[in-house]
Design goal:
Distance between the termini of chain A: 44 Å
Oligomer: heterodimer
CATH topology of the largest domain in chain B: Enolase-like, domain 1
Helix content of chain B: 25-40%
Number of strands of chain A: 5
CATH class of the largest domain in chain A: Alpha Beta
Structural class of chain B: alpha+beta
CATH class of the largest domain in chain B: Alpha Beta
Mean pLDDT of chain A: 91
Shape of chain B: globular
Structural class of chain A: alpha+beta
CATH topology of the largest domain in chain A: Ubiquitin-like (UB roll)
Order of helices and strands of chain A: EEHEEEHHHH
Number of helices of chain A: 5
CATH architecture of the largest domain in chain A: Roll
Helix content of chain A: 25-40%
Strand order of the largest sheet of chain B: 4-5-10-6-7
């Protein structure tokens, strides 16, 4: 991976303190040379070209940049890329397989859980962390788990329904429709 | 946005970390969860030359009670660990009430209690909780460890008494005299916002009498407000409508709120009073039921 730095005139490129890190992204092992101040969100978007992780507020408020690190949902704009060294990162690109959408993605489609789509990847990853820990959440559980992710379009109702749809689908195994209406 | 350039070290031992801090002096900063520090660095409110990331140091992610009931919280214990803790639910009502109200679930997955204390934000919830509980911070430096009472730890907004070569390795909550009661109430505009008003109440009671009381306030002063007079008015007395009203008045007097986009000073002071009454009335009820 090539990293290009802005030449700000104050420091020549050889002075930039680079670090070599190894990490796993969506199940694939990677090595990268990163400057310590690079944020995880930038490594994902610019370094790896995975632009499904969105940058919203860039101030630790909105949750659009949510990814999983070792299964925990975190804001990738508020973690340094070097801190991913030795860890496992999952982004929205890691949810679907080549042939099939993840039940969460299907749920957002079925229940109209998105309008502009900007918050959607973050919502899905926060929801995945919830469902991995609690396969049968109540509506309240879902609202609580998503309370760090802001959506300015939907009013949240359909997002909550989408997650409950996905939970039912995951519980019912491979059936094409959820066992119960969410 | 991204921070200014810094040197980054992620040592594997406290000794190594303290050595790095000695080297870095005033320009070095410890990073634990980074949920306050990274945003500050991105906004260039903080531009440390050296970041000492302690996340690779093993054995700091604990929270546990000693045999006598003293609670110890390690520097890498995340908010989420405290939110899910059965130990807190059964023994620490004030902390158990506050844990789910810290920031939002994503921040709670990474941020730490000890880091929040060090950050010393007047709107930090944990500082009020630990102050109300009479807790302290254990600092480790080249000369060993020392305990700093929470009341002395914060010296002003975003200022603490740590020396440049010290790391806050643990927060300590002393054992209760009798039964613990209390809670934390927080008024916020939306999840993840800073408190408009936060009130922490920590009581230790035996046989219906309050043996020790602590009341501390979030977001209504230049730093965490300890309402000592209010706590004193409850000590060695029973919780009655009269003592509760008196404590609520004294707490409201101790608050020093400012009018801002979250509300007027008058409104905030009123909410402080209301929260104290609610927290103490609830505990009065539960003490009666237990008696």
């Amino acid at each position: 991976m090539t990293t290009v730095h802005d030449d700000l005139g104050d420091q020549v490129a050889s002075d930039v303190p680079m670090r070599r890190i190894k990490f796993t992204i969506n199940g694939v092992r990677k090595a990268a040379e990163v400057e310590p101040r690079l944020l995880l969100a930038h490594l994902i978007r610019q370094g790896l070209g995975l632009t499904g992780t969105h940058m919203g507020c860039d101030t630790t408020n909105c949750g659009a940049c949510t990814v999983l690190v070792d299964g925990r949902a975190i804001k990738s704009c508020t973690m340094l890329a070097v801190q991913a060294d030795g860890h496992e990162v999952t982004t929205v690109e890691g949810l679907a397989t080549a042939s099939e959408l993840h039940p969460l993605q299907e749920g957002f489609k079925q229940e109209h859980g998105l309008q502009c789509g900007f918050c959607t990847p973050g919502m899905m990853l926060a929801a995945k962390a919830l469902l991995d820990a609690n396969p049968d959440p109540t509506e309240e559980d879902v609202r609580w788990a998503l309370s760090g992710n802001l959506c300015r379009c939907t009013g949240y109702q359909n997002i909550v329904k989408s997650v409950l749809w996905a939970a039912a689908k995951l519980r019912s195994g491979s059936a094409s429709e959820p066992a119960q209406e969410a | 946005m991204y921070p200014s350039r810094f040197r980054y070290e992620a040592p594997h031992s406290l000794g190594e970390a303290i050595g790095l801090l000695r080297e870095g002096g005033d320009e070095a900063k410890v990073m634990a969860g980074g949920q306050s520090l990274v945003p500050l660095m991105k906004l260039r409110f903080a531009s440390p030359e050296l970041i000492v990331d302690i996340n690779n140091i093993g054995g700091l992610d604990y929270h546990r009670a000693d045999a006598d009931g003293t609670l110890r919280i390690g520097a890498l214990c995340r908010h989420v660990d405290l939110e899910r803790s059965d130990l807190l639910k059964s023994t620490q009502p004030t902390m158990a009430a506050a844990a789910p109200l810290i920031a939002d679930p994503l921040v709670r997955n990474r941020g730490t209690l000890v880091g929040s204390l060090c950050h010393a934000d007047p709107q930090g919830d944990w500082a009020s909780v630990v102050t109300a509980l009479g807790g302290s911070v254990i600092a480790q430096g080249p000369a060993g460890r020392r305990a700093i009472p929470m009341a002395d730890f914060v010296t002003g907004p975003f200022e603490n008494t740590l020396e440049p070569d010290e790391i806050a390795v643990e927060a300590v909550i002393p054992a209760a005299q009798g039964t613990r009661a209390g809670g934390y109430l927080k008024l916020e505009r939306r999840v993840g916002d800073f408190a408009t008003v936060g009130v922490a109440v920590a009581l230790e009671t035996t046989g219906g009498t309050v043996r020790r009381a602590g009341i501390a306030l979030t977001g209504v002063g230049g730093s965490t407000v300890a309402a000592a007079a209010a706590a004193g008015a409850l000590t060695n007395r029973a919780l009655t409508a009269e003592t509760i009203e008196q404590a609520a008045d004294l707490t409201a007097q101790a608050a020093n709120p400012r009018t801002d986009h979250r509300g007027s000073a008058e409104y905030k002071r009123h909410m402080v009073r209301t929260f104290v009454v609610r927290l103490l009335s609830r505990d009065g009820d539960s003490a009666e039921r237990a008696a």
